[in-house]
Design goal:
With 141 residues, the protein is α/β, with parallel strands linked by helices. The protein is built from four helices and seven strands, in the order βαβαβββαββα. Strands 1, 2, 3, 4, 5, 6 and 7 form a seven-stranded mixed sheet that branches. It is globular.
Length: 141
């Protein structure tokens, strides 16, 4: 199986998760950025508002995604939704080939339809490494 690991991060949490998964799959993670400034407390509030309104962003993909059997896409959750940058990425990557990994403070993603799988990693549960291990193990099963 050929896997591609793609992530968007505001605070670094999703990058850390993507790097752990990519290392276990022996691939390099690919970062997606957008044209917005989400830094600091004001950036956090802008991000929440943008996510709630399903705001559009332009994205840059820092690497070659190419064809893969399955894509592992890591996104933070903003106001109960995946980030605008990942929503835009999913216009280019077939959702039915995506394992979506969502990092949050303590919520589950509600919009789960159409993905190969969805994994919620919540900081409040302190079980990130265990969930990553189980997820990667399920890929090779």
């Amino acid at each position: 199986m050929k896997y591609v690991v793609i992530y968007f991060t505001r605070s670094g949490t999703s990058r850390k998760i993507a790097e752990k998964i990519a290392k276990k799959l022996s691939v390099e993670p690919i970062e997606v950025t957008d044209n917005m400034d989400w830094d600091g407390a004001l950036g956090y509030m802008r991000a929440a508002k943008h996510a709630m309104k399903n705001g559009a962003v332009a994205i840059q993909i820092h690497g070659q995604i190419g064809e893969a059997d399955e894509y592992v896409v890591v996104s933070p959750m903003w106001c109960g939704k995946i980030t605008p940058a990942i929503r835009k990425l999913l216009d280019e990557v077939p959702k039915e080939k995506v394992h979506l990994i969502v990092s949050s403070g303590g919520m589950n993603l509600k919009e789960r339809d159409g993905y190969m799988s969805v994994l919620d990693i919540m900081k409040s549960k302190h079980n990130e490494d265990q969930l990553i291990q189980e997820f990667v193990g399920s890929l090779s099963a």
